[in-house]
Amino acid sequence: MKIKVAADPKSVLEGSLEIANYFGYLSGVHHVQVDVERDANLGSCVGGILVDVGGEKYRVKDKKEAARLFVQGVILRKKVEDLVVKKVLPPEEARITQEVPIVKRNFGKYRDIDGYISLGGYEALKKALKMKPEKVVEEVKNSGLRGRGGAGFPTGLKWESALKEKSSEKFVVCNADEGEPGTFKDRVIIEEDPHALIEGMIISAYAVGASKGYIYIRGEYSDVAENLKKAISEAYDKGFLGEDILGSGFDFELVLRFGGGSYIAGEETALLESIEGRAARSRFKPPYPTQKGLFGKPTVVNNVETLVKVPWIILNGAEQYKKYGTESSPGTKLFSICGKANKRVVVELPLGVTLREIVYAYGEGVYGEGELAMVQTGGKAGTFVSKEKIDVKLDFDAVKEGVSLGSGAIVLIDDKSTFLDIALNVIEFFEHESCGKCTPCREGMFLMKKIVSKMVEEGKIDYDALQEIERIVLIMKDSSLCGLGQSVHNPMISLIRMLERGEVA
Amino acid sequence: MTINGREYEFDKPMTVLDTARKVGIYIPTLCYHPRITQNGSCRMCLVEIEGQRLLQTACTTYIRDGMKLWTHSERVKAAVRHNLELLRMIHPDDCQTCEVNGRCELQDLLQRFGVERTIDYYGNAVDILDESSPAIRRDLEKCVKCFRCVKACEEIQDLSVYAMIKRGHYEYPATAFDAPVYNTVCVGCGQCSFVCPVGAITEKPDWRKVLELLEDGDKVVIVQTAPATRVAIAEEFGAEPGTISTGKMVAALRRLGFDYVFDTNFGADLTIVEEGNEFVERVNKGGPFPMFTSCCPAWVNYAEKVFPWVTKHLSSARSPHMMLGAIAKTYFADKIGKKPEDIVVVSIMPCTAKKDEILRDQLIIDGWQPVDYVLTTRELGKLIRLKGIPFMSLPEEDYDHPLGVSTGAAAIFGVTGGVMEAALRTAYEVITGETLPKVEFDEVRGLDGVRDATIKIGDKEVKIAVVHGLKNTEMLLKKMERGEVFYHFVEVMACPGGCIGGGGQPKSLDPDVIRKRAEAIYEIDEMMELRKSHENPAIKQLYKEFLKKPLGELSEKLLHTHYRDRSKEYLNLWKYYEKERVS
């Protein structure tokens, strides 16, 4: 016998997964062999959860009704008249946003460069090399592509300012130092589609007039870096890298560099310092990297995900790309769902998708005893979003509502975690990762750790000290050198507000 | 543009900080220093700019047309005060006995903003006290992590003795493998102690020992003052850089209780006679060229440690104060009927490396040190202050005879190009036997990093170069190694601007301080009646009565030295590596 439980986001939020689990539990109790399936396309109903038992559709409000349905409908195989649903809403009404494979277009489809070429790889490069660099920049600019590393700076504008700089030498750098906790999208890209990254880098170098590129990959990714190394040498062999690429007269050299494990090395100027052989500490801006970057030369730093999108945009055109997403944030975004999520995956969704859909439809809710309490979006420096605000649309404008998109990390946190657990976790991380260059971040993080550790030791929340923390993070935001210190207030303030509203203990 | 509601007009791009200073608006700074590039890390010079979401640092932001900014808004002050509170959190409260008390930029800022200790003192990242070097002392408990020492050593000297290691609160400016600084490539120039805003790096303090010597010693205490001190010491008492205060300094030294006040310029004249004759001898013998000057001890250390081939080319002449010390303990001691052991010679120097130089084995004569103590200009200032001597209102007094007589050639030793110019004045007349038509050699003057010229002396053409700052020196030496340039005579000064920009000079945030002091030095030269070293009557008398002739037997013993290759000494620093210190 087969039981199908609706698993569209609406039903999931109303507890359909619990009901589904409960059916499994009942089958064990009653020693009845049943097949419980979660079906996102079953449809839904008003005022309960839609359950399909042997083709008959029922509406179940709670576990009590589920138990009754199980006994009467499954074991006794009778029709339970009072639970029969009158109106089934079609799945379209609770339709979930479908994945759009732009970045994931080649995932799992090839093993080497020949496979990539047979999938249409390096076609975009051929097309780009026939265009003028200005045209390539124009196309990327028109697509409205924004940086996928976290800050969301328009990629086309960045390229344009680097293209305008007059310099004997320019560089392009790929930021693969994916140190943001809860983010693992770039790792998946490098594992599954390294050639798209290389192709994107060559196109970006051609567009801005760079002759050398670096991929700065975090040291912990040494295993996937092997994949990338192999792909680079294949691209050299096939003539996509090196001198006079595809007979266009354009030379490009690509080098792989490993990070030493510092979080701040993911900040673009710190990353450049690290490539130059110094300790990763942020530089002051301006001058921006596009003016004075690596070794003092104009440099474009792009995230892995951004670069992988470039070949697709060149091939399919900016208009095609703009069909996805919202007006201010076109295109798709990779989200990496983790934390207490039932399903920890990387999904590619158009921007403007609601957090609810990501959490329930793709992350399938939280596992274990607890209930979902909050979600941290955008990485460690992102905001905590309470369960009440879960219907927020995720795009670059969500920041205005206090929800950061950041790197696309979606960390689910259940109600077993207390305020002090979470606060200490955040602060210990930043205290350890502050590069130490500027005063407010360096000593402010240290002081906050002292304050919170004291609270943890005493086991109670000191509200006066919380005020002090608020002051520290706000001044840190106002006066820090780089994005690290400037964004610590995101998690801290949002967490303190949740505490005040009683949404976390 | 508008600053604090008032409109100003400027025609060239400048940073907000320079602009504000120009119009007399105070902006607090801590990591900014004119001698190095800005770091933008202390977050003290914050300003609020209209249209900018966050506060910006004045030292790194350039002015724009129509820019509106506020330097003292409540928001700015709150941030600055908070950052100062955080610095106070890691800074110990031992100002009273701190070497830089009253000359500390952090202390000034805390005072200016009235920052009490609102946060408990949690201790600094490390409490390393490194007294290994005779030149500088590092007390890292006081470090405020401004990066100035790291940048000074890298940008001025290209030695990079220090690097900030570790992260966050736990970072500190460490030497390689945390080795004692004396065992590293450090040459003791003291530029780090000059730029340090607090007392984390200071000269190795010797003033207390000198004070005790003066107060209850029974020895004859002789003091000598370097050429560059007289144009800088007044800055310790609030005067403008470049104020000439030779006479007041002599008067102050007498009041401190020194028995004889001599002038290192005498030693400089003697150096020129010896070194000039050595050069003439090399010209006649045909080498070895190039000949390098040897009066800068930091440069000598650098040559021995980094470019050992240079040691064979260095002039064998000792530095001026060592010559004067040796003469004072022999020739002058005889005159007053004392033995060398009964005399203590103290040198007032703009330099920390001189503290290291006096301990060199090669300079010890018959078991005694020619100079016993070296005090920096800053230390002298402190001594005068501590003794309550009203420096600025003292009368002008003269140096004691005979070792206080000097010429203009000696005076310019204090500025880059000065030794070269002084040597040329003498060498010209010794080689040609004619009187120099114009004493000024404008080719070697100025503050460019490297200056070279070809000088015609009689029928010979002499190629000379003048370089200051070890970074410039390194570039020049590498060019020589590649055979791109050739010189007969090269003057090297390790510090920017020569001794006037020395590591022991009064601390200054004036970007023009070197130029102002240099102008004063040249002014002293011009005021002198005698401007060539070999015309110094006291020197002539010294040769007649005692030394007999330049490069003679006694000269070789008292006034010359030799060098050795120390390039292997600082290499195996890993032995200082302690596992528990480096995590």
Name the biggest interface. Answer: A-B, 33 and 36 residues
Q: Structural class of the helices, strands and pairings of chain A? A: alpha/beta
Q: How many structurally independent domains of chain A?
A: 3
Q: Give the N-terminus to C-terminus distance of chain A in angstroms.
A: 44 Å
In what range is the share of β-strand residues of chain B? Answer: 5-15%
Roughly what percent helix of chain B? 25-40%
What is the radius of gyration of chain B? 25 Å
Instruction: Note the main sheet of chain B.
Output: 5 strands, mixed
Oligomer: heterodimer
Assign the CATH topology of the largest domain in chain A.
Answer: Rossmann fold
CATH A-level architecture of the largest domain in chain B: 3-Layer(aba) Sandwich
Radius of gyration of chain A: 25 Å
Tell me what the structure shows:
The complex is a heterodimer of chains A (505) and B (583). Chain A folds into 3 domains: 2-94, Glutaredoxin (3-Layer(aba) Sandwich), CATH 3.40.30; 103-322, Rossmann fold (3-Layer(aba) Sandwich), CATH 3.40.50.11540; 332-500, Roll (Ubiquitin-like (UB roll)). Helices cover 42% and strands 15% of the residues of chain A. Chain A has 19 helices and 15 strands. Chain A has helices at 9-13, 16-30, 63-75, 113-118, 123-130, 133-143, 155-164, 185-192, 194-208, 222-237, 268-275, 304-316, 318-322, 355-362, 419-433, 439-458, 463-479, 483-487, 489-500; strands at 2-6, 35-39, 49-53, 56-60, 171-176, 212-217, 253-258, 299-303, 332-339, 346-350, 353-354, 372-377, 384-386, 393-394, 409-414. In chain A, the strands form 4 sheets. Chain A has a 5-stranded mixed β-sheet. In chain A, strands 2-1-3-4 form a 4-stranded mixed β-sheet, with helices on one face. Chain A is globular, with a radius of gyration of 25 Å. By secondary structure, chain B is an alpha/beta fold. Chain B folds into 2 domains: 2-87, Roll (Ubiquitin-like (UB roll)), CATH 3.10.20.740; 219-559, Fe-only Hydrogenase (Larger Subunit), Chain L, domain 3. Helix content of chain B is 33%, strand content 13%. In chain B, helix 8 crosses helix 10 (320-336). Chain B is globular. The termini of chain B are far apart. Classes of the chains: A alpha/beta (505), B alpha/beta (583). Chain A binds chain B through residues 262, 264, 279, 281, 283-284, 286, 431-440, 442-447, 450, 471-472, 475, 477-481, 486, and chain B through 38-44, 46, 54-55, 57, 60-62, 75, 78-79, 82-83, 86-87, 89-90, 119, 122, 145, 147, 163-171.
